[in-house]
């Protein structure tokens, strides 16, 4: 992935999994719903990623679209997530979403938390 502008991106595999999860949640055909990503304090490296479906934007939210999927984050989280790509792995070494974050100076072994 080569970022052409500051944003948050999603791989094809992660997008497919998000759509599958939105179908299971019954919100895939509701255009009001989007993927909310964020950063919260905690985890063994100091900061952890957060993913959820949401249908309400807040005044300071940053809104992006990649591969036809609407991705929203709060301004504070965006400072940590700029040019990050959400990916999904279903391999033997672990299954789940992970963030390819160029801003992280280190991350923990489980990949759920990071530091800048």
Task: Write a structural description.
The chain has two helices and nine strands; from the N terminus they run E-H-E-E-E-E-H-E-E-E-E. The two termini are 21 Å apart. A six-stranded mixed β-sheet has the order 4-5-2-3-9-8, with helices on one face. With 116 residues, it is an alpha+beta fold. It has one domain: Sandwich (Hypothetical Protein Aq_1857, Chain: A), CATH 2.60.300.12.
Topology:
Blueprint: E1 8-10, H1 12-25, E2 34-41, E3 47-54, E4 62-66, E5 69-73, H2 75-81, E6 84-91, E7 94-100, E8 106-107, E9 113-115
Parallel strand pairs: 1-6, 2-5
Antiparallel strand pairs: 2-3, 3-9, 4-5, 6-7, 8-9
What distinguishing features does this structure have?
globular; 9 strands; 6-stranded mixed β-sheet; 116 residues; single chain; 2 helices; Hypothetical Protein Aq_1857, Chain: A; 3-stranded mixed β-sheet; 42% strand; alpha+beta
In short:
By secondary structure, the protein is α+β, with helices and mostly antiparallel strands. The protein has helices at residues 12-25, 75-81; strands at 8-10, 34-41, 47-54, 62-66, 69-73, 84-91, 94-100, 106-107, 113-115.
């Amino acid at each position: 992935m080569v970022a052409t502008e500051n944003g948050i991106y999603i791989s094809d595999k992660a997008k497919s999994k998000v759509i599958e999860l939105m179908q299971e949640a019954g919100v895939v055909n509701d255009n009001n719903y989007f993927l909310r990503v964020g950063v919260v304090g905690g985890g063994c490296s100091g900061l952890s990623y957060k993913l959820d479906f949401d249908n309400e934007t807040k005044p300071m939210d940053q809104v992006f679209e990649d591969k036809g999927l609407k991705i929203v984050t709060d301004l504070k989280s965006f400072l940590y997530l700029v040019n990050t790509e959400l990916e999904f792995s279903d391999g033997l070494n672990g299954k789940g979403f992970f963030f390819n974050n160029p801003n992280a100076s280190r991350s923990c072994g489980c990949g759920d938390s990071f530091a800048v």
